[in-house]
Design a protein that fits this description.
Blueprint: E1 2-6, E2 15-23, H1 31-39, H2 43-51, E3 61-65, E4 72-81, H3 88-103, E5 110-114, H4 125-139, E6 156-160, H5 164-192, H6 200-208, E7 214-218, H7 220-225, H8 229-235, E8 243-249, E9 257-262, E10 264-268, H9 277-280, H10 288-303, E11 308-318, E12 330-332, E13 338-340, H11 348-360, E14 366-371, H12 375-381, E15 386-390, H13 393-405, E16 410-412, E17 430-431, H14 439-448, E18 457-461, E19 467-468, E20 478-479, H15 484-493
Parallel strand pairs: 1-6, 2-4, 2-5, 5-6, 9-11, 9-14, 10-11, 13-17, 14-18, 15-16
Antiparallel strand pairs: 3-4, 7-8, 8-11, 12-13, 15-18, 19-20
């Protein structure tokens, strides 16, 4: 689908479907919707609103056929909801719902939409166009690469804005929204790909192909040489060797140095503590954090932030085999701390431990890791919100603010030291797991052992939000690319 924006009236572009809107409770449409209603001799106000009772409730739509019209053959009227509840995050959700409805409508190839929110609602045209582009791309995402028959979908989706000043601002926002949408959807593609293709080597190949200032791929011998004993142990059972990936974006006048780390377990069978079959089915998704940071770095030069950004992925599989690490083993992380392996299925924190140690050597101003880390986080927050923890309250608040602005839901979990009690070991510095209670916080406290106290660090647990089994907000069923908008907002703000 081609997304476009044009400086023209919505009634002047020929299309199969025209999209307009109504606020809840509207009886006489204004703006572009009013212009369309007038051209149709009051069909929207007299028939759709008065006779059919369409109220404009948020997310609801009304499809109206106008077969004899010379410009468009169908009109989709979208409900904006209550005026005082409407904002840009709701507009992103609405844009996603609209395109999903459009895709389900027969004989629609070319679509024209008004610039929702920039007229009667009075929102900034830049922001409106940005979230419309994002929502449309998110809502239209499909993964049909392996299907023998592919359904033909919408060819063009054009946003029309007649006001020249609004159009100039909207054009910039639309381009930014398309770029963000592309970044999100690329991550979703990687997450959805089967693990037979997405191996550690595959992620390394993608990294090497990127237009960045420097890319380093460390092989097994390098990983062992750097004494990444925790990461190396997890990789032992797989025929696919591990790869430690370091990507760098370095602008000329960088104000800050930021490290983002994505958990990169390309398949998690649980190791010798093997998962049940039903739990293993979705474990190709255990590299969702890696997909997020890889996608960001793929487009970072186009976003042009003024911060120096380093992205790290400790990529490997966690498989059972004759060479697998075993319960009771003791491994040593890069910083010299020892870990007793209580459960080989608590592997993500082991790979992140060494990645965090490596990140410290870069002397960053801030570190963020994003990972499908604990089932406990999914139990606590479901598929609606990701968990956030860290060692610096000011930094956590900044990330929470960035997430709220981008419509991504994060919920801060406590890091009370008592949660670490179950991780204490009789034979090593710590265990890698310790019971079911408080598992999300215990995992974060485990990671905190590999962070220097003076380095601001945030951990984001996306175990419940990286892949969802039903549509939630703007996200459709499947991989979401959650975290990309929040991280990009933070990076750009720095």
């Amino acid at each position: 689908m081609e997304l476009k924006i044009k400086n023209i009236s919505v009634t002047e572009i020929k299309s199969d479907l025209l999209i307009v809107n109504l606020f809840e409770g509207t009886t006489l449409p204004g703006g572009a919707t009013g212009a369309v209603d007038k051209e149709l001799s009051g069909l929207i106000s007299d028939f759709v609103i008065k006779k059919e009772g369409f109220t404009g409730e948020f997310g609801k739509t009304y499809l109206l056929a106008v077969p004899n019209h010379k410009i468009f053959t169908k009109i989709l009227i979208a409900g904006l909801g209550k005026r005082d509840e409407f904002d840009l995050n709701r507009l992103r959700i609405l844009a996603s719902k609209i395109i999903q409805k459009v895709i389900q409508t027969d004989n629609v190839k070319n679509v024209v939409s008004m610039l929702h929110g920039a007229g009667c609602a009075g929102f900034d045209p830049y922001g409106c166009a940005k979230v419309i582009a994002e929502g449309t791309m998110i809502g239209s995402f499909t993964f049909d690469k392996y299907k023998s028959e592919v359904k033909e979908v919408v060819k063009t989706f054009t946003v029309a804005e007649i006001d020249k000043k609004n159009f100039e601002k909207a054009s910039e926002g639309f381009a930014k929204g398309i770029l963000t949408g592309e970044t999100i959807n690329y991550a979703r593609e990687l997450i959805t790909e089967p693990a037979q293709h997405v191996t550690p080597a595959f992620l390394a190949e993608i990294a090497q192909s990127l237009d960045l200032d420097e890319i380093k791929i460390y092989e097994k011998v390098d990983i062992d040489h750097m004494q990444m004993g925790a990461f190396s142990a997890v990789a032992q059972g797989s025929v696919h060797p591990p790869k430690f990936i370091h990507m760098e974006y370095i602008p000329k006048k960088a104000k800050k140095k930021i490290v983002i780390i994505g958990k990169g377990i390309t398949f998690d069978a649980g190791g010798l503590d093997i998962k049940p079959a039903a739990s293993m089915l979705t474990m190709k998704n255990d590299m969702s954090g890696a997909a997020v940071v890889l996608s960001i770095m793929r487009n970072i030069k186009k976003f042009k932030p003024e911060a120096e950004v380093h992205a790290l992925i400790a990529a490997c599989e966690n498989m059972p085999g004759g060479s697998s690490y075993k319960p009771g083993d003791i491994v040593t992380a890069m910083n010299g701390k020892t870990i007793e392996i209580e459960n080989t299925d608590a592997e993500g924190r082991l790979t992140l431990a060494d990645a965090l140690c490596y990140a410290q050597q870069l002397n960053p101003d801030a570190i963020i890791d994003i990972a499908t880390l604990t089932g406990a986080c999914m139990i606590a927050l479901g598929n609606v919100a990701s968990g956030i923890m860290g060692n610096n309250e000011e930094f956590i608040k900044k990330i929470l603010k960035c997430a709220k602005e981008e419509g991504e839901r994060l919920w801060q979990m406590p890091m009370y030291p008592e949660y670490f009690e179950n991780l204490k070991s009789d034979v090593a510095d710590m265990k890698n797991t310790g019971g079911r209670g408080g598992g999300t916080m215990a995992a974060a406290l485990f990671l905190n052992n590999f962070i220097q106290k003076d380095t601001p660090w945030v951990h984001i647990d996306i175990a419940g939000t990286a892949v969802i089994d039903r549509a939630i907000l703007e996200n459709t069923k499947g991989a979401t690319g959650v975290g990309i908008r929040t991280l990009l907002n933070y990076i750009m703000s720095e």
